[in-house]
Amino acid sequence: MTAPTVSREQVLAHRIVTHGLDRRAKAPGDLAVVDLGIQDSPTGTAAQSLAARLPVRKAPVAVPDDWVLLWSVRGAPHYHRRADLAALARALWPVDSADAAARMGGASPQIKEAGTDPLDALHATAEALAAVVTRPMSKGEASTALTERAPDECAAYCRGCGVVHVQDQLMRLAGLPSGTRLEPGSNPLTLAPIPRWRGVPDGHDGGGLLTDAYLRIHGPATPAEVASYLQTTQRAVKPDWPDGLAEVRVDGKRAWLPEEQLDDLLDAPTADLVRLLPRSDPWLLARDRERVVPGKAHRKVLWPMLGHPGGVLVDGEIAGAWRTSSSGKRLDVSVELFAKLPAAARRAVDDEAAAVAAVRGFGDVRVAYDG
Length: 371
What we know:
Layout: E1 5-6, H1 8-18, E2 38-39, H2 45-51, E3 67-71, E4 77-81, H3 85-92, H4 97-104, H5 108-113, H6 118-132, E5 137-138, H7 139-149, E6 155-158, E7 163-166, H8 168-178, E8 180-182, E9 190-193, H9 208-218, H10 223-230, H11 234-237, E10 245-250, E11 253-258, H12 262-266, E12 274-277, H13 282-285, H14 289-292, H15 296-302, E13 310-314, E14 317-327, E15 330-337, H16 343-359, E16 364-370
Helix pairs in contact: 4-6, 6-7, 6-8
């Protein structure tokens, strides 16, 4: 069977539905994006991502009580269902030493130069963190105690802190395996133990769950995109590549999604909506950025080296970027448009800005446009 060719517009229209941005879901637990976790960086963005997907209501959207905040995919803070944590820890545990090194990024060269296996270093750090975090404690306190227990090659001088401590990414990757969670909204960041945790995983298992979730939510996609999302290599992803996929061609390239979604992709309805997506929203975390935002100059605005803005989503297209500042009880929303918006779309942006203000606890909002 010849793989069908689909357009970029069809892909994005289909993705609107898989992301729940059509607001058909009634509650946070109904959203498929939760299968990969909802990133919360900076603090509060997870609630904004939920608000963009749930029916507009007067009361602010809250993260469900049975979701847990922890370092997970790429070491970033995500909310996950409590019931998913054990399987998630096994699925995120590296396949092998090369996989562990890839996920560690800049932390791995020092470890390998010392003659230590990166996978062994991660296991030792996770065991040490589990022994340290037996009660709520600040990240700084936990890091100090962890550095005393972890192998010496796991620590390095930190210019920002002015001390030697276990490298931050390694500590983050060790968080979930050690049974460590994060206290939402804490300042300074507070770590705490996950009750009844069964210990550091003894190996990788069930990684196909994450690959399948990525393909269902961000598909059609490629092994390279899944690997990039998980911050690893294609070699580590391929053993978990699921069966039952349909191949399509997008922009002349092969990509895959679950077979049962193919008809939905081919018949995806045209999107008619406006949403203000926070900077770490799932839509902006897909690894096919050239498809999500075709213009190179616009991609530089959305994904700069530092200080990412949010995205203005209009009918499936990122039509601009937005940032916030506050003055007393008022939230100021600054919108940089990539193209002129019709008056109706601007009114919808104003409405979405009011919803963002409600989520963040502001009683008033002002929207200013640049472009």
